[in-house]
Amino acid sequence: MSNRRLLVFNILRGVAAIMLALAVAAVFIFLTSKEPLTAMKYLLLGPLVSFKATGLVFNSTGLFTILAAMIPTIFTGLAVCVMFSANQFNLAGEGVVMLGGFVGALCGIYLKINSPLHPVVCVLVAAAVGGVIMLIPALLKVKLGASEMVTSLMLNYIIMFVVLHFLNYNFADRTKGSTQTYPILDTARIPEIIANGTKLTWGFVIAIIFVVLVALFMYRTKWGYAIRMIGINQSFAKYSGMQVGAMIVLSQVIGGVLSGMGGSIEVLGRFNSFLWKELPGYGWAGITIAILAKNNPIFVPFAAFFIAYLNKGCQQMATYSDVPSEMIDIIQAAIFLFFAAEQFLAKYRQKIVVKNTQMDLANQAKAAANAEGGSH
Amino acid sequence: MFEQFLSTILKAEFLFSVIRITAPILFAALGAVVAEKAGVVNIGLEGIMMISALFGVLFSYWTQSWLIGVLGALVIGVLLSLMMGFFAFKLKTDIILAGIAVNMLGAGGTIFLLYMFTGMRGNTGALVTPNTLIPVVNIPLIKDIPILGEVLSGHSVLTYVAFLFVWLLWAVLYKTSIGLDIRAVGENPDAAGSVGISVERIKYIAIAISGALAGLGGAFMSMYYSQGWNSGMVAGRGFIALAAQAMGRGEPLGTMLSSLLFGLAQALRTKVSGLQGVSSYLVSVIPYVVTVIGLVIYAASTMQKVKKHHTKAQKGA
Predict the structure, then answer these.
(1) What stretches in chain A show pLDDT beneath 50?
(2) Quick one: closest CA in B to A89, which residue?
(3) Pick from B104, B295, B296: CB nearest A336
(4) Which homologous superfamily does the CATH classification assign to the domain defined by A62-310?
(5) I need a labelling partner for A163 at 20 to 30 A (CA). Which of A47, A106, A141, B173 fits?
């Protein structure tokens, strides 16, 4: 019973953090906009509702595009969950998504394989490359003690420029106006679940399957337990005989595999060719999502939905009012800060804990009294 | 091609550009040094640089004074780092996550703020006038020395300030009581607390100095280096600064040397990309690769020392 009360508290606390962040957003909107109410309306309701003369109408296309936007960020969110659980602040997910997308696209263009197998091969190759790349920060951390945070940040830039080099010098389709690869073969495309142009592909289903797989891995296997234990108390994990070094490497390789997959599935599902010219931002979104999900894989889809909703809301706001869509970064940063704040509303948690304990003690006393009464 | 390359880098002009390019990295790296001395990882340097760079331009535009612009950037840097401190020390947000949040503000928030204040998108080209740029200084006597004068004279005021701060920060850390407190808190917060040092206060002071330095780095970028603010301007310099701090063993002088190394890598990048037949993308990788290699060498040498220490201790026993 006491656990349930704490759970309710945690949910309320999350809602409070989101409300505060939206309040911050509202302040900025009222400061900048000449039409603040319109802006707020599109930010909060725009993603799922159309405003018709007759009233509000639920917009199913909106829902599909939000679900579609979740595909890459579910993968990066899961990747960050695994790495942060082991206390590995590896931030290279951003670069690995781009690399995964590029490698996946190249496999989709140059490998000749039959249809159902082709995208599978592309995604697996991208995942493998992602995992191998993450060995760099992971091994440097374990073998030499170099900060994975700094090496992974540098890795993002290195990956971006190397991908752009190969895109421009080796794989560009010169018949096109902008820099992009040749078209991805039809056999390699990941099809939409319902062909309605919203880009909600089978990638979404794969993403949800991976949510379950990663959750099982983290909470039902020896390795998952070791990874979480290292995050909670590395010395304890070491002295209880866990192979800390190997697990640290494993957590980051898994992070790389998931990020690489996410990038390739996104490119093969959404685009006709590879055309990213800068880091796509899904790695950073993954960090926000993992924070919202408290590093628990099961909560990742919900957090991803929330971020995708906000993103769409900001785009709608930018289209229909005078507030720029970069507002999203301010809202995200605010949510991020309050969500990650352990002491945010801690006084109330303290009160709940005290109350729970008092009730437990009272119950125990009652039970003891009853037992005594019975024995006489 | 190689000869052509050599002849470009063996010029006073090249060394001049190394110093110029080093300055903003040095500011941020010194910011990393002071924070790290107090046991605080300031990964938000990148975002602080972006935001103060923007406000430097805005303040100088509003007042038509470069000095107020620079001071404004510094104040914004302090405010942002105090905000990070509030979340990290008071509300117990992980300091790395607080830093990532500041970086988010730096990436997209700046574009929003620019639009909010000026209605412009992406860059501030139109706001820049000679009044609003940090002036350059020709040092008397030195400027007349051949070669040396060309290398050392004619930099912006802030460039000299950056290198002056190396000494100043060393003096603060090692010759003042506040410096002693900062180092004590970083070494062992419990011990520092037990002798009556307010650990939280010292951490706030350290991160505020760190933010002020990053703010100056930001002002340097927008008000001198690229003469105006644009969204891709800082390009990882805040992160490179963290690497420079690690490689400089957390000491001001060592950090200056590693910052110079990264400055050299950046300067090489600009020179080499001017040559024909070289991929500008691969050249762009140089500073980041140098950073990783630098970190690896530093980490490997530290590891070796620790091992030696261990074997000695074992032999002794």
Answers:
(1) 1
(2) B96
(3) B104
(4) ABC transporter involved in vitamin B12 uptake, BtuC (1.10.3470.10)
(5) A141
